[in-house]
Amino acid sequence: MSGRIKTLSDMLKKGEISSAELTRRYISRIEKINPLLNAYVLKTFDEAIRGAEYADALIKQGKAGALTGIPFALKDNICTDGIETTCCSHMLEGFKPYYDATVWQKLKSVGAVLLGKTNMDEFAMGSSSETSYYGAPKNPVNLSKVTGGSSGGSAAAVKADIAAYSLGSDTGGSVRQPASFCGAVGFKPTYGAVSRYGLIAYASSLDQIGPLADSVEDAAIIYDAIRGQDRRDSTSCPTADGVTKLDGDVKGLKIGVPEEFFSEGVDEEVKKSIEAAICLYERAGAKIKKVKFPAMKVALSVYYILCCAEASSNLGRYDGIRYGFRAKDYGDIDEMIVKTRTLGFGKEVKRRIMLGTYVLSSGYYDAYYKKACLLRERITAEFDEIFKDCDVLLTPVAPTTAFDIGGRSASSVQAYLADVCTVPVNIARLPAISLPCAVTKEGLPVGLQIIGRRFDDGRVLSSAYFFEREACVKVPLCKEVQL
Ligand code: GLN
């Protein structure tokens, strides 16, 4: 059976529906459902209608591609020329970029239809989207639960089908973890496979744009449309030619299971669901091997030192002069900058800037930042060693399922623990996918993570495709969202 994107694309190409009509349907769903979910922080319906007209012209000329005419959403940290891009921060309120991110430019040129910008943690710092200046989005599977984060609005929009698909960004898990919490598919490509040009920087050595989708097939289609080297992002790399093949053949596939990902803090139900998924691969002829990843114990600390250090530097540019918000009532320029940053940034962002400034300061640089850089090498080397004998790794995406809104906002450290299974992937610049593998007794989705070698993105997607096809996991939406 075809996924959402292929189904819509076939309807468009056969003339059963026009892109303008499809776009109007999505707009009316957004009007009804978004007030419940707070998934969009900006609706770009004029842009959508313009895009749909362009798409319909392409279809008429027989020039339609896989994504032509299909309505989608962008996380609010991806720059859109002339369209407000705020990172869900007061600091960037009213900021309209003067250029398009490469990913948006690529999608626009093939006739993709932009419905709006989605909710996220402020500057992508968080794991529940609750640090958004616009309030937390809600999980379409259960409205009392968080969506995960930071690409929470993107995941919620895709799951509720108020966007056919979406793009998010993943610095330490922000595409995969919300996908797992909302029952969607989230793919973080190899670092460098997708251009970061126009992605507002959080931690540049870890940031990566990736798709949130309704199926693995959709994720592969989107990945193919956005990947490739870009001269405007010096860290981007060429990727394999042609389209990603999803044969879903796992016979003889060497699967590693790193036991450290299943240790303390991982819910029993999550553990059992992942183990059941591993059995499915085994029954289909994959070879399962337990592997050791001792560096796991330092990964979270390494991540939070590196991301805060990079964030403190990247966010130095918000001075009230060049972008978005500027405080009123100040005596001199120093006071203006201090007031702007004091009022413009939220609590979590300030905490990270301070932590980052601390670990980079002379006297502490060697003890924290330099040590974290060295440990990054060790983590990467451990993965390389494992991948000598394994094709992919299977792990949970997060230790728990979606938690209650407001349930963890009191403790940052507790919130940081939610990232323990996702951050090692960013540290080592690997590709990984999150896809639903079970539904708990409470009705919440559990995500399975598949991690691959650098630039072996195709194999990650194909291995995930196998599971999706065989397991047929269905994650129902809550009744308020079912229309
Ligand atoms: N939760 C992690 C953090 O707060 C990851 C966020 C992300 O990937 N953008 O940094």
Describe what you observe in this structure.
The protein is an alpha/beta fold and 483 residues long. The protein has a single domain, classed as Amidase signature (AS) domain (Amidase signature (AS) enzymes, Alpha-Beta Complex). It is 39% helix and 12% strand. It is built from 15 helices and eleven strands. Strand 7, helix 8 and strand 8 form a beta-alpha-beta unit. It binds glutamine.
Detail the topology: elements first, then pairings.
Layout: H1 4-13, H2 19-37, E1 40-43, H3 45-60, E2 71-75, H4 102-109, E3 113-118, H5 152-159, E4 166-169, H6 176-182, E5 185-188, E6 209-213, H7 216-226, E7 254-258, H8 268-283, E8 287-291, H9 296-314, H10 333-344, H11 347-360, H12 366-386, E9 392-396, H13 412-417, H14 423-427, E10 432-439, E11 445-452, H15 457-471
Helix pairs in contact: 2-3, 5-6, 7-15, 9-11, 9-12
The structure holds glutamine.
The site of glutamine has 13 residues, from loops.
What is this structure, in a nutshell?
The protein has 483 residues and is an alpha/beta fold. The protein is built from 15 helices and eleven strands.
Spatial separation of the terminal alpha carbons: 22 Å
In percent, how much strand structure appears in the residues? 5-15%
Tally of helical runs: 15
What's the CATH architecture?
A: Alpha-Beta Complex
Q: What is the makeup of the main sheet?
A: 11 strands, mixed
Mean pLDDT: 97
Strand order of the biggest β-sheet: 1-3-2-4-6-5-10-11-9-7-8
Question: Which regions have little confidence, pLDDT < 50, spanning 5+ residues?
Answer: none
Number of DSSP-assigned strands: 11
- Shape, principal axes of CA atoms: globular
CATH superfamily: Amidase signature (AS) domain
The whole-angstrom Rg is 21 Å
Overall domain count: 1
H/E order of the elements?
Answer: HHEHEHEHEHEEHEHEHHHHEHHEEH
Structural class by sheet pairing and helices: alpha/beta
Can you give the helix content as a percent range? 25-40%
| CATH topology description | Amidase signature (AS) enzymes
Bound molecules: glutamine
What is the CATH class designation?
Answer: Alpha Beta
